[in-house]
Write a structure and sequence with these properties.
By secondary structure, this protein is mainly beta. It has no helices and five strands. The chain has a single domain, classed as SH3 type barrels (Roll), CATH 2.30.30.390. InterPro entries: DUF2158.
Length: 90
């Protein structure tokens, strides 16, 4: 009886990521949202377009190789919030 298997090595790297996935660079850095996964003109291979807010609250966008990022959970535990950076209303 024939069976079908999916081998992770046969799936293109960008195909493992979907728009809306949350990722971080393997070297560390901010949590980013994938806004595009696929081919990009004049750049060989597959790429991820990611957006995030920097420490000043500015929206940033950059293109990354899928091999340079790892997936993160979409939500974060409350204990991981840095309260010293959160403004409080008086």
């Amino acid at each position: 009886m024939p069976t079908a298997t999916i081998d992770a090595l046969q799936i293109p790297a960008a195909a493992r990521f979907n728009v809306g996935d949350v990722v971080t660079l393997k070297e560390g850095g901010p949590r980013m949202t994938v806004t595009y996964a696929g081919a990009v003109a004049l750049n060989p291979g597959e790429w991820l377009m990611c957006e995030w807010f920097d420490e000043q609250g500015e929206l940033r966008r950059e293109m990354f190789s899928p091999a340079s990022v790892r997936t993160e959970p979409r939500s974060i535990p409350a204990a991981s919030v840095m309260w010293n950076r959160v403004g409080r209303a008086a």
